[in-house]
Amino acid sequence: MQKILVIDDEQNIRRMLIRVLSNEGFIVEEAINGMEGWEKLEKENYSLVLLDLKMPKLNGMETLKKIKDTDSDLPVIMMSAYGSITEAVEAMKLGAVDYLVKPFDIEELKIIVERAIEQYKLKVENIYYREEEEKRFNFEEIVGKSNAIKKVLEMIKRVSPTPATVLITGESGTGKELIARAIHKNSLRKEGPFVVVNCAAFSLNLLESELFGHEKGAFTGAIAQRIGRFEMAHGGTIFLDEIGEMDLSIQSKILRVIQEKEFERVGSSKNIKVDVRILAATNKDLKKELEAGSFRDDLFYRINVFNLEVPPLRERKEDIPLLVEHLINKYNKILNKRIKVISPSAMNFLLDYNFPGNIRELENIIERSMIMTQGEVIDETSFNFIKIEENQTKKGSLKEWERDLIIKTLIQNQGNRTHTAEALGISRRSLLDKIRKYKISI
Hints:
Layout lengths: L2 E5 L3 H13 L3 E5 L2 H10 L4 E5 L7 H11 L5 E5 L4 H10 L3 E4 L4 H30 L11 H13 L6 E4 L6 H10 L8 E5 L5 H9 L16 H4 L4 E5 L6 H13 L1 E3 L6 E3 L3 E6 L3 H7 L4 H7 L2 E4 L10 H16 L5 E2 L1 H9 L5 H15 L4 E2 L5 H9 L5 H15 L4 H8 L3 H10 L5
Parallel strand pairs: 1-2, 1-3, 3-4, 4-5, 6-11, 6-12, 7-8, 8-11, 13-14
Antiparallel strand pairs: 9-10
């Protein structure tokens, strides 16, 4: 569970932030001034700091400098009731990831906090994966010997050296991002950046800013210029995940980038040239989206130059033993475990299971079972939670089962919407729609 430290001398602000962020599934601790906050930072590990600018003893700017001198990667979001542009810019120069002006817009606060923590998490994970990638050829991350996965690997080898735009299709949890990374790592752009954008994770306005950046003053809260993901990906590859969730107005801008290799930041009329290869992925049937008018046909034909369909796990079950071995080795390191094997009965259970969430669900199952396993062998009793969920599909209506499953998964993820959506294999937007539909209050 991610831990956040709130440093603010105003009790009401601390209480509000603790309430809001705790409801989002975070552990939130508080400090009444910079000195107390610094003492906590020396003793505990945090994933994010929310730091007030004006405080006694040790003010926000001084505290920010001390934090960045010690841990330059730890994300810090500055807060102030004064909204000074000069101080905001100074804070960003010192390494703050964002700047919030009191009183807060709660929904904006949640988005900024989740984005900062997700970027920090990715940074930490990237260190692990970079070390792993240095040890082996990238294709070895795509585990399996089935004919279905051999076909995918052959297509990756063929398309990677070309400049072609690739549309990766397949169900949620099949490993589409892994395929995109393999294409990039085996392309002529492998020394350039690989930038991922989950198109379903942002609102319309935020997605436009994420993709193309914005100028200072472009909208409320735009206190400084920010470059977008396309600029970050210059000379490399950008991966547009869940592109089927993208609004039509953004689709037209993506089309322009593909055709003209240029775009404008939000709030600017200046054209910015960019050299980027585009990879996209979706679990939707885009041809049906074309018929429904929710996806542009000209963009579809531009991104669908080369279609690579990733098979669901139920069509490559012979790969399950290899995947399980790979995941046990991975989580032995992450969880500091020494599990050696999985019992024959447990393996038979996995081979008989249908895996609606595909490899992501298998990974979730192995991780959860390893946490519960005390010895060196995973046995069938470690999968009792799956049997309970399967049995529930036979009771009551499908809507009741879906509501119960969402509630259970929210509880397992301490209420964090982003992690719950990932565990369920759906977009965050779809999860929020279902939470409203079923009036879930966790």
